[in-house]
Each structure stands twice: as structure tokens, then as C-alpha cells.
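Sequence in, structure out.
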Amino acid sequence: MSLSRRQDLLRALPYARRYARALCGSQSSGDLLVAESLRELMAVDDPSMPPRLRLYQWISRHHAQGCKTAEPKEGMPQQARKLLLLTALEELSITDAARVLSLAPGQAAAMLEEAHTRLRSCAQTSVLIIEDEPIIAMDIEELVRQCGHTIAGVASSEAEAVRLARETRPGLILADINLGDGGDGMSAVSSILRHQDIPVIFVTAYPERLLTGDTIEPAFVITKPFEPLTLAVSTYQAVSGGVPLN
């Protein structure tokens, strides 16, 4: 592989980690997928596809090969989940997402439309928002309601977040990383998860700084600012537990 393509591949790593973690529902399984894919991809030089797309492709293939669970009778098939994540979370065009999954563009478009329909009919949950900026918190509240969910509460500090989680027992936590003077979002979530098992989505303006693979990091990360569809897809994947590797 040429030096320039290796550099492009390394720049794509944080986004590949985000995709793989959301796909698997955990940091460890997602990072393992990325490591396996990267080792094989670095050994070849195939200029027919940009390195970032090629990495998404290998992650998707390894996931399909390693997932021993059958396709669900209800809910969303694996390919549809991958299309949603690639287009909403990773912001790929339907054309590029189809290339990644080796689908015809028309087939991918029809599958994505069906996935959107299923997404709109998925079960709602209550969401605890951890965000220290009042205006941003209000915007997130509106997005959460647009997705059909209810608001369990809005916390602007670690202490308030822990208290609200204990009192409301939400179905999902949507947390900012930096709470300013109110502390740290990841620390707040860590305290909550010691007593409750709740799926968590973190939001940050700089996902590449968070998705390094060097420390314990979240499985679900979305980038500020985000669209309602991005939140809806991430919520569905977080609440449904992804499609785990067994």
C-alpha cells in the first residue's frame, strides 16, 4: 500500500471505530473488528476504492462472518442496520454505502427506505439528557421528541445526572462529554452505570479525539451538531443492543 493511502487509512481510523462500535454495541468488539480489518487491509494495495470506504467494507464483512446469531424475525436485518449507520452516523452517500456493502444502488435505496419505515415504528423510550449548555439542551430535547421519545430529565452536572438517573430510571442516556464547571459527562455516566444498566450515547464536537482506542471509551458516539435521523439511528442501535458478535 502506498504511503498516501496508508495516511488516508490512519486518518479514517476514528470514524471506523465509531462505525464498528455502534455496529457491535460495544467498544471491545468494535475495536477488535477494526484491528482485524486493518491488519488485512494494510497488506493489500487496491486503489479502486478510497481507504475509508474500503475500511468500512472490511469491517462490515468481518462482522457478517463473525456474527453467529440468525437474522431477527422481527426488527431490522443486519444489512439494513449497516446502511443506516453508514448513511446517518458516518454520513456516506447512498452510492458509497452501497459500494461498501456490495449492493446495487437501487437495491440499497429500497433497503434504506424500508429501514427508515421500520425505524419510525420502533419502540419509544425515556431519555435522560446530560448537557450543561441550556440552549443546546433545549435543542436536544426537541430532537429527542421528534424521534418519538420522552424526556426523563435534563441534567447540567454530574451530581444532578446521577440523582435524576436514580429517580427516573431512564431507558437511554444522551450525554455530552464536557460539562464545564459541572464536571465530566463520562464520569457521570460511569457513576450511573455502577448501579443501573442503561444504554448510553455520547455527543461531542470532536469524535476523533475520543475514538483513539487507548482508553475505556463509549460504544456509541455522535457528532455535534447532529440531525434527528442520526439520533434516531443511534438510539435504535443502542437500545436494541446492536447485532452482537458471539
